[in-house]
Write a structure and sequence with these properties.
The protein is α/β, with parallel strands linked by helices. It has two domains: 78 residues; 224 residues, Rossmann fold, CATH 3.40.50.410. It has eight helices and 14 strands. A six-stranded antiparallel beta sheet has the order 12-2-3-10-1-13. Strands 6-5-4-7-8-9 form a six-stranded mixed beta sheet, with helices on both faces. A hairpin with a 5-residue loop joins strand 5 and strand 6.
Length: 339
């Protein structure tokens, strides 16, 4: 009898230890179809969350449609074709025209002409800056590279709020981080492409002070998701999408967003026409929708000592036609939240 009592007491102590080393965490999760449409009706049985090889209990599934703060970061480098820079400004204008009244927006530029509009300045000030950029100003002063600009932009948000996001439109992320970010510039030697520079290559731009890992870590701390429009070529060394890849795809996937690829052609030309504009507007509207509304999974998680990578798996019947967007770095529970 004493033996069974000891076992019972041991189990109670283990449960108490677990309770003291666990906390509730709200995880933002977007579920989108392969066509970019949002999935409705997600339940706890449709998803499994893993951390440290453990399956975390999902207490409930909510839906967040609250006001958003969205920072646009535009690549204004002369390296981008003029029509690609035009596309950036038109997509900002389009998103603003479709945005909800409660959402607020800000603007920063990188690598070229400098424009900054803070959240508190309002949409009129932002539209004025966008119109100035649409006129393709030729300015000698260049703004910092992408990673430094993003890090500066994080401070604009101040205290984190659910749904904070960055929309980054750029040729590429940064050339100094990973070979997989760009395809080396080369001259083809056969066929109609003979003698033509066909690939996007280094522009010898100054590297950011901040490294990819530091920016990714900061985004995780502040709960900011990054969504992107890439206008330059993207090359995968492994052929597999990896959230840890140090490129524009990696910074979006790793933070819980996703990337639209609408690259210039092999000649380095970006042709803007009605068909391309209509298609890109539709994709940008879907991207904005993924920012405006997402699921919130409340999970009971072990209190980590540092940020850790976690994984989310959709039910088998959902995997074929949908994908889950979620921040891959699991932020530690705040002391006040642990229980």
């Amino acid at each position: 009898m004493r033996f069974y009592v000891l076992i019972f007491l041991s189990l109670l102590m283990m449960q108490a230890a677990w309770a003291q080393k666990s906390c509730r965490v709200d995880l933002p999760v977007g579920v989108v179809g392969m066509d970019g449409s949002l999935l409705n009706g997600l339940t706890a049985s449709d998803v499994t969350v893993h951390l440290r090889k453990q399956t975390l209990a999902i207490e409930n599934v909510g839906y967040d449609t609250g006001p958003r703060r969205i920072l646009f970061v535009l690549d204004t480098s002369r390296r981008l074709p003029p029509e690609a820079r035009k596309a950036e400004t038109m997509m900002v204008s389009y998103v603003l025209s479709k945005a909800r009244p409660a959402d607020s927006f800000a603007l920063m530029t990188a690598r070229g002409a400098s424009r900054q509009v803070h959240f508190e300045e309002g949409r009129d000030a932002l539209m004025k800056a966008v119109q100035e950029l649409a006129a393709d100003p030729k300015e000698q002063t260049k703004t910092p590279n992408i990673l430094d600009t993003m890090m500066n932009g994080v401070h604009w948000f101040g205290e984190p709020r659910p749904g904070d996001a960055i929309i980054l439109m750029a040729d590429h992320l940064e050339e100094s981080n990973s070979e997989s970010q760009y395809q080396g510039r080369g001259i083809t030697g056969v066929g109609p492409m003979q003698g033509v520079v066909s690939d996007r290559g280094p522009s010898f731009e100054a590297s950011s002070r901040y490294k990819f890992s530091a920016v990714a870590d900061t985004l995780a701390v502040h709960g900011i998701r990054v969504f992107g429009l890439q206008l330059g070529a993207l090359n995968f060394a492994s052929g597999v999408y990896e959230p840890s890849e140090e490129n524009l795809l990696g910074i979006t996937l790793g933070s819980g967003g996703y990337l639209i690829l609408d690259a210039a052609d092999a000649f380095g030309s970006y042709v803007w026409n009605d068909a391309r504009a209509g298609k890109l507007q539709n994709r940008m509207y879907q991207l904005y929708g993924a920012i405006a509304q997402f699921y919130v999974l409340r999970v009971n998680a072990p209190t980590p000592l540092h940020r850790e990578f976690w994984t989310l798996e959709l039910a088998k019947d959902l995997r074929k036609n949908t994908r889950a967007l979620y921040p891959h770095l699991f932020d530690p529970c705040a002391p006040a939240e642990a229980h």
